[in-house]
Write a sequence for this structure.
């Protein structure tokens, strides 16, 4: 006992010592390896030892650029720029001889994914390709700091072992996947660190201010963007991924301070069914190398007990559906330089060392398993192609006659995933839907990327496990609210394929009818119609919206929500207005019609009282403590980045002091808002302004009397029932809606539904807020259907709750409106189909008739 006590005391003293003293390079590097003294260490370039400070992004790339100059084993290439214009780099590290022949090696390696040619390749003499990605979450910095050591080691290590590794392996290192977040975090922890390290978890060093640094500039989790590809960081990275087609990808993360170290496999029952069983087996085999390496340095770890490989939009799972093996590493985070944990003081150098050690064990495994990994990739694509020939589904067809921009954006994503896509050769009719070459696309399944196509298009509703680390459904044509159909052997022939689409083009808009001296009109169906209207508002142009239908002189019917721009009374001349509209129509893919008379052939006339004047939205978005930064960022990104709508970000602690008179729209993302004045907000809404609440914000609005929505009560477990304690976690987790897709119905005459042409709309849901329908029959513009589940997992109990519940509800507060959405219509920036609900709330909330809304 005394001996054990003495060992424990010694360990604690050592941790305390390490918390104050900086680890030297020898703490990290493997023993019995000599290093080339002509290759500079990180300290020689940066002026401090790895782990002494948190590296900023500019310092990181300074070292990487320097290593490119001094080492013939390294080349560096910029693959993109972040939203904050920081460069993203990929380093290629291999032997000098391989570098001389790198393009041929790359071309040969890519042929592994071509079943027609892969059998001719000599795998025995082919290098494996390993991709190592660090710190996709900015406040998980041990990865990027370990990248310094990885690059130094690969550049400077000497001896037959490293020579063999570099001859037989091409190592691709992405040292900072999220440069904006990494830089934000380094600035925070370095600023809040003292000369004497404080390990108290209450210290500001370990408690970042909102929105924290996990995310990128717009507060998106880039580790969820591998499939949606909505950010420049992801788009550039994926282009390089497919340029190389790696065999093994490592993804270095951090988790809670009181944890240890995790490496995949994750929980076996939660693998995606489309991933081959061999991927899991290879992951297990690679795990043995990590275990051996971590055992050697005495680091605690675990595997197969948490996390999963289900959602293909994550960095460690996307490779699994591309013939590679993805490995997730999760290191307990010091969240600063040294912090107390249940396992003793956790130091930043310790976290870096574990990431570096498993970097080396990954390379060791890849080298030892080189032929296995290469064979797995070749077999994956051969088997995928063979499977595609046997399935009943032969192709997917999708499009939108009235809004080809949404179809274009989906085609754009599909092409970035190296999936072959075509235009129909001629119009194809499936059921009652016509798919024309101008606005539709066909994705044949008989191609090597068959499994990825299925992952993007399938509507899965049955699962082996009821718990998910991330979302359970992401069906892309549903996310884009596109008409789409399955083509099988009866209605598909390869001859139907027209032009192969290599570089999708945004549809161009136009003005039909030339310059008008009277008015112009455009329908709200086009995805970018709000951007045109906003452009007009920015130029001071007055606009009206049609709250009923009408026909023009040529017989064209204009639907609810049509925007009318009179020529008279504008601050610009008729010629200037025409030029402005012409440029805006072309850019936004919108057809604008010249109206020569106000006397329509049917429906309301252009001077009708049913043509309502619109105010330019002046938007404030609440941010700060209590607000879900992901959801707020998605709203901000949509408005600012995609629709060029200026949005003022106001923190919750500044709201009570702000002059609200300059705004007429308030966006409240999911979150808690207990610090803002409900009386000030009420007075502002009553003046005729609009509040848009989403997620838990609607609960706050209801609790504070700003919305009269009521929620369905979930039935409790009957008293006296006994259940197994061991099942507690799984049973409670099964009641979570981590992310699934549900069908709703729209009232197409309601301002919040303007621009939709189909009264059925798929909505993404990731919470258990179930809203009771209003007693007012006009106040339920969007409702869940009686059989709403379209894709994903939901428990039977929650499925009963969501049936026939309200998906959008409006409350009249004085002259203003509160629009309540339990769901997030802007989810991860790729939920194009419901963006219109959010934008309609912004532009048309002001015109909703009070009698059609719930009343406070």
């Amino acid at each position: 006992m005394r001996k054990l006590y003495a060992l424990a005391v010694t360990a604690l003293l050592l941790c305390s010592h390490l918390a104050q003293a900086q680890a030297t390079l020898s703490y990290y590097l493997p023993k019995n390896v000599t290093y080339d003294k002509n290759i500079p260490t990180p300290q020689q370039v940066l002026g401090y030892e790895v782990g002494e400070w948190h590296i900023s992004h500019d310092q990181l790339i300074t070292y990487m650029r320097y290593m490119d100059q001094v080492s013939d084993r390294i080349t560096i290439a910029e693959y993109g720029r972040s939203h904050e214009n920081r460069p993203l780099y990929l380093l290629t590290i291999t032997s000098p001889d391989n570098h001389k022949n790198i393009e041929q090696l790359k071309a040969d390696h890519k042929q592994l994914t071509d079943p027609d040619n892969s059998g001719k390749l000599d795998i025995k003499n082919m290098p494996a390709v390993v991709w190592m990605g660090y710190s996709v979450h900015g406040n998980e910095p041990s990865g990027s700091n370990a990248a310094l050591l990885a690059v130094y080691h690969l550049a400077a290590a000497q001896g037959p072992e490293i020579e063999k590794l570099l001859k037989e392996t091409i190592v691709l290192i992405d040292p900072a996947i999220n440069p904006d977040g990494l830089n934000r975090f380094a600035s925070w922890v370095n600023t809040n660190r003292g000369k004497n390290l404080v390990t108290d978890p209450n210290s500001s060093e370990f408690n970042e201010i909102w929105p924290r640094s996990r995310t990128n500039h717009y507060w998106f989790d880039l580790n969820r963007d591998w499939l949606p590809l909505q950010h420049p960081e992801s788009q550039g990275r994926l282009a390089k991924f497919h340029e190389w087609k790696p065999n093994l990808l490592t993804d270095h993360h951090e988790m809670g301070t009181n944890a240890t170290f995790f490496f995949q496999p994750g929980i076996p029952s939660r693998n995606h069914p489309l991933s081959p069983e061999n991927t899991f087996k290879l992951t297990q085999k690679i795990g043995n190398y990590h275990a051996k390496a971590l055992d050697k340095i005495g680091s605690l770890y675990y595997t197969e007990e948490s996390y999963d490989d289900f959602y293909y939009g994550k960095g460690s799972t996307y490779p699994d559906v591309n013939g590679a093996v993805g490995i997730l590493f999760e290191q307990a985070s010091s969240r600063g330089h040294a912090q107390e944990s249940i396992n003793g003081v956790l130091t930043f150098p310790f976290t870096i060392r574990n990431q570096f050690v498993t970097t080396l064990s990954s390379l060791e495994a890849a080298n030892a398993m080189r032929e296995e990994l290469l064979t797995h990739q070749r077999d994956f694509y051969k088997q995928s192609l063979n499977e595609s020939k046997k399935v009943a589904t032969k192709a997917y067809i999708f499009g939108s006659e009235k809004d080809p921009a949404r179809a274009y954006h989906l085609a754009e994503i599909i092409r970035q995933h190296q999936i072959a896509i075509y235009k129909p050769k001629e119009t194809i009719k499936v059921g009652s839907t016509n798919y024309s070459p101008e606005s539709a696309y066909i994705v044949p399944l008989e191609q090597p990327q068959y499994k990825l196509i299925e992952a993007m298009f399938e509507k899965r509703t049955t699962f082996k496990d009821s718990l998910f680390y991330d979302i359970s459904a992401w069906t892309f044509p549903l996310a884009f609210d596109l008409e789409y159909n399955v083509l099988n052997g009866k209605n598909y022939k390869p001859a139907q394929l027209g032009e192969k689409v290599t570089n999708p083009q945004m549809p161009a808009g136009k003005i039909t009818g030339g310059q008008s001296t009277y008015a112009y009109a455009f329908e709200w169906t086009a995805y970018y119609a709000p951007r045109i209207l906003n452009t007009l508002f920015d130029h001071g142009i007055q606009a009206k919206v049609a709250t009923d239908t009408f026909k023009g002189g040529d017989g064209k019917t204009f639907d609810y929500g049509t925007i009318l721009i009179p020529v008279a009374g504008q601050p610009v001349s008729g010629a200037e207005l025409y030029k402005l509209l012409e440029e805006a129509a072309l850019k936004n893919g919108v057809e604008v019609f010249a109206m020569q008379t106000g006397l329509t052939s049917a429906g309301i006339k252009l001077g009708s009282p049913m043509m309502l004047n619109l105010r330019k939205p002046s938007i404030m978005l609440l941010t700060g403590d209590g607000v879900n930064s992901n959801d707020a960022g998605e709203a901000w990104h949509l408005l600012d980045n995609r629709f060029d709508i200026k949005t003022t970000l106001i923190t919750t602690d500044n709201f009570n002091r702000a002059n609200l008179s300059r705004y007429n729209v308030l966006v409240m993302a999911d979150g808690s808002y207990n610090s803002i004045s409900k009386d000030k907000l009420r007075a502002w809404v009553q003046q005729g302004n609009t509040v848009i609440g989403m997620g838990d914000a609607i609960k706050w609005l209801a609790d504070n009397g700003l919305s009269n929505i009521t929620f369905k009560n979930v039935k409790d477990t009957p008293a006296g029932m006994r259940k197994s304690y061991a099942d507690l976690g799984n049973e409670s987790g099964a009641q979570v809606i981590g992310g699934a897709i549900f069908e709703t119905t729209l009232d197409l005459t309601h301002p919040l539904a303007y621009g939709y042409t189909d009264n059925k709309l798929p909505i993404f849901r990731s919470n258990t807020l179930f809203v009771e329908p209003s007693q007012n029959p006009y106040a339920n513009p969007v409702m869940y259907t009686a059989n709403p589940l379209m894709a994903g997992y939901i428990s039977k109990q929650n499925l009963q709750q969501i049936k026939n519940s309200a998906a959008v509800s409006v409350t009249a507060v004085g002259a203003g409106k509160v629009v309540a959405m339990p769901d997030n219509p802007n989810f991860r920036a790729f939920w194009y189909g419901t963006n219109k609900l959010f934008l309609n709330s912004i532009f048309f909330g002001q015109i909703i008739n009070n009698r059609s809304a719930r009343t406070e």
